[in-house]
C-alpha cells in the first residue's frame, strides 16, 4: 500500500485511497510486439493468481470516437492531437487505472504518456509544455522499454498488420512513400525513446529477439516488483 | 506566462462570467470594425467541429472530470488556434475571441485543477493586444441568465462539483467562484475591466475607444469590400466567420 505519486500536481481536487496494486508500463515503438507481450504477461500473471487489468493509448470511451474521426481527416494539428491524447490519458487514469490500482490489480499499460511525448516532440511540440501537461500522470512502478532496430520493426509490420499512415509519420512529409517515411520516422522516434529512457529510467529490454526470450526477460523484474525486491536502480524516475 | 503577440495581426478578446454582457459587446465591436474596412475574424469558445462530438457526448453522459473537462476544452481551443486564429493573425487579421484562455483559467481552477498546470497547458497562446473583462456583480449576472434561460445546463451550473443539489443555487455558487478567479487574474494578466452594469451604449463607447487606441498607426490585411472571413475547411474549426 502506498500513496499515489504523480509527476506534477496530479488531481488536486480529489483524494485517493492508497494504492495496493502495481502499475507496469510496456513502452516501445510501433510493431515492436508490445501487445503480444502484454497478452503473455497477462495470462502468466493470472496463472500466478494476480488480478490483471490492461489499458493502452486511445482506449478511453470519452475520446476514442472523436480521435478516430479527427485522425481520418487532414486538419488535425500537432497541439490538437497531443491534447486529444492527453484527454484520453486523463480519462483512463482517473476512471480506470487508479481505481484498478486501489482495488489491488496489476495494471499492464500498453504504452504510457512517454510515447505521446516522443511523437509530439518530432512534430515540433515543446518538450517542457508536454511534460507539464502530463503533470497529471501517476508515476508507474515499473517501465520496461522494448528497444528494437528499425529494420526489425519493418519486417514485423510487413508480416503483421502492415504499414500505416500515422505509424509511418506520413503527416510530416518526410518522404513520398510509406516505407521510406516509416524508416525515417521510426528512426527519429527511437532517438526520442533513448532520451526518455535515460530521463525516466526505463528498464531497457532488447526486443530484437524471439518473443519467448523477451517474455522471459520481462518476467524477472515483474516478479521482483511483486515480491518487493525491485531495487531502486530499476525503478522509474 | 503568455507570449507576446509578434504576428502582424491583432488579437482582441472579451471575458466575463455568463450574463456579463460580453457577447453583446463583442458583436457590436465586430460589426463596427468590419464597417471600417478591417479584416476581422470572430472565434467563439468551444466551437471546434473536430472536438464537438466528443464534448457533446461527455456532457450528455456527464462523464467529464475536472481534468478531462479542462483538457478537452483546451483541445477545442488548440484546434481553433492551429487552424484559424494563428494563421489569420499571421495574415494580419484582427481576431476577436468571445472567451479566451482566461475562461479556462477561471472555470477549471474553480473546478479544482491546479492553476499552474492549466496555465502551462494554454501557454502556446499569445497575450491579447486588448483583453476586456466585463465585470458584473454576481446577483445581476445570475438574474440575467436565469430570467433569459429556463434551463441551466449541468456543467454550466457546476453541478459536477456537488455544491448544491439545487441547480439555480449551484449555478450561483459556481459563478461566484469563477468571478473570484477573474478578479484575481485582472492584475496577473492586465485585463481591462469594463463595468458591465452600465448601459450597453456607454460600454461600447469605452470598448471602441480602447480598440481605436490599440489600432492606432496599425495597418492589417486590407478588406476593401468589407466582407466577413470564413474558414472554409469543413473539418476545421467551425467558427462563425460570418457572425450575424
List keywords for this structure.
heterodimer; A: 237 residues; Rossmann fold; 5-stranded parallel β-sheet; 8 helices; globular; B: alpha/beta; disordered C terminus
Name the shape of chain B in a single word: globular
- CATH topology value of chain A: Rossmann fold
Strand content of chain B: 5-15%
CATH superfamily of chain A: P-loop containing nucleotide triphosphate hydrolases
SSE string of chain A, helix = H, strand = E? EHEHHEHHEHHEH
Biggest sheet, spatial arrangement of strands of chain B: 2-3-1-4-5
Report what the structure shows.
The complex is a heterodimer of chains A (about 240) and B (about 240). Chain A has about 240 residues and is α/β, with parallel strands linked by helices. Chain A is about 50% helix and about 10% strand. Chain A has a five-stranded parallel beta sheet with strand order 2-3-1-4-5, with helices on both faces. The radius of gyration of chain A is 17 Å and the shape is globular. Chain B has about 240 residues and is an alpha/beta fold. Chain B has a five-stranded parallel beta sheet, with helices on both faces. The radius of gyration of chain B is 18 Å and the shape is globular. The model of chain B is unreliable at about 235-244 (pLDDT under 50). Classes of the chains: A alpha/beta (about 240), B alpha/beta (about 240). The interface of A and B includes residues 63 and 135 of A.
List the helices and strands and how they pair.
The complex is a heterodimer of chains A (237) and B (244).
Chain A: E1 22-27, H1 34-47, E2 52-56, H2 64-72, H3 78-102, E3 106-110, H4 113-122, H5 127-133, E4 142-147, H6 150-158, H7 178-200, E5 203-206, H8 211-226
Parallel strand pairs in A: 1-3, 1-4, 2-3, 4-5
Helix pairs in contact in A: 1-8, 2-3, 3-4, 4-7
Chain B: E1 10-15, H1 22-35, E2 40-44, H2 49-61, H3 66-90, E3 94-98, H4 101-110, H5 115-121, E4 130-135, H6 138-148, H7 167-189, E5 192-195, H8 200-215
Parallel strand pairs in B: 1-3, 1-4, 2-3, 4-5
Helix pairs in contact in B: 1-8, 2-3, 4-7, 6-7
